[in-house]
Amino acid sequence: MLMLTLLLLPLALLARKLYLKKFKSTKNVCVLVLGDIGRSPRMQYHAISFAREGFTVDVVGYPGSSPSKEISENERVRVHYLRPPPELQNRLPRLLCYIIKVVWQTADLSWLLLRKRISNSLIAQNPPAIPTIPVCWLYCVLMKAQFTIDWHNYAHSLMALNLGQDHALVRFARVIETTFGCRAKYNFCVTKAMKEDLEKKWAIQAKILYDRPADEFHPITLTEKNEFLHKLTEKYDILIPSSPRTGFVISSTSWTEDEDFSVLLSALFEYENACITSELNLPDLVCAITGKGPLKDFYMAIINLTKFKHITVKTPWLENEDYPKILASADLGVCLHTSSSGLDLPMKVVDMFGCRLPVCAYNYNCLSELVRHNENSLTFADEKELAEQLKMWFQDFPNNKSQRQLREKFQGNMFTSQHDNWHSNWKLIVLPCFQE
Fold it and tell me: What is the pTM of this model?
């Protein structure tokens, strides 16, 4: 039996080599995210850029929000949906639910990767790391494909928000990221701070790929803005009267633990009190909060009990093509992102900057790589600072000359690189790694 095995093994390896040579294209790449594809803009941008450069692309992830039309209507791109794991949270212990979920995801992801067309390269989003990274690495070993990780954050730091730093699952996620991050052919990350941290802690060499706005995030004309404000009223029940002028604030949130929505809520309470006491000449505000997430119902209950007289809070779920327009129509953006690792940057601010919308952003370690206080936008440390910024921005609105000058200054300093848009930046940094 042993002799027969030794004789058949070379034949099996030769057959595998011939099979891969026949069916594997050198320009087929798999873009994978173990999450809602429609809510994963950076991975969608990867897929679109690959397609523009002549690659055939398989996008793998979960259903939910619709992906962009440039993906769904692109003949070079195929979207493959994973099956969501069963909902067992209310019937089984938490740890057992997690184990079942990981086993389900491992089997489903492995089966989908093996039955789709063979990829020459695979780029996976991290987080989540479990089971994404080990499964993708094994697939690349079997298919002799190039394995690449795009680090958006750390899986273990996100898990630690709920479980604590010393939990066994958090330590296991850290081991997974360390072990397989070193085995990737290429690693990309979102900040200089993350690049330095990956190299210092785990000896992982990563290239910085800063987020940049896609083409649809750009300023719009006054006519386009008026048309869209009318659409907001008709379609989303958001009324922003043009006379008397009402301030329009937009914030996008995932309603998770790393975005403390209570900070904005407290700042709005203080703004409301300033309107009531008439200490400043402040307009009424419409505050639109977009996004979905686990804590939305909790905060919506608080909002519904609040009796604002000068502030209207709306939480619309926008169609893909309407999100850039609402950013371009707003007077000010608010970002509550704080980062579990302190090493990633908020994509929502990148989108706002693409529309040349000034932002008040919650300050943390590496935010200055994107938002520079009083240079291209404002940063705040707590709800009091945010409230003061809201009052400063909207005092005597819209006839405050100094505010208009500040806005123009911010807009001029939002992006200073010649590679301001996603695709030109991507071609410079990512494309060479997939042409070797």
Answer: 0.86
Kindly state the helix (H) or strand (E) to which residue 35 belongs, with its residue range.
strand 28-36
pLDDT at 430 over 60: yes
Distance of CA 209 to the CA centre of its chain: 14
pLDDT attached to residue 273: 94
96, pLDDT greater than 90 = no
User: Are the CB atoms for 433 and 149 separated by under 8 Å?
Assistant: no
Portion of the chain with pLDDT greater than 90, in percent: 66
At 377, which amino acid appears?
Answer: S
Residues 29, 127 contacting (CB under 8 angstroms): no
- Cα–Cα nearest to 139, from 129, 154, 150, 124: 124
SS3 207: strand
- Give the HSE-up count for residue 5: Cα atoms under 13 Å, Cβ half-sphere: 2
Reading the block at residue 420, the tokens are 């301001």
Tokens 């690189």, residue? 417
Contact 387, 266 (CB under 8 A): yes
**Lowest model confidence (mean pLDDT) among 14-18, 64-68, 121-125, 259-263:** 14-18
Query: Which DSSP helix (H) or strand (E) runs through 136?
Result: helix 132-143
Compute the half-sphere exposure of residue 434: CA atoms within 13 Å on the CB side of its CA.
33
For 142, residues 6+ apart whose C-beta sits below 8 A from its C-beta are none
What's the rounded Cα separation, in Å, for the pair 292 and 237? 18
Rounded to whole angstroms, the Cα distance separating 237 from 57 reads 38
CA dihedral 333, 336, 338, 343 (to 10 degrees): -20
Total Cβ atoms within 10 A of residue 297: 9
* DSSP reduced 3-state for 179: helix
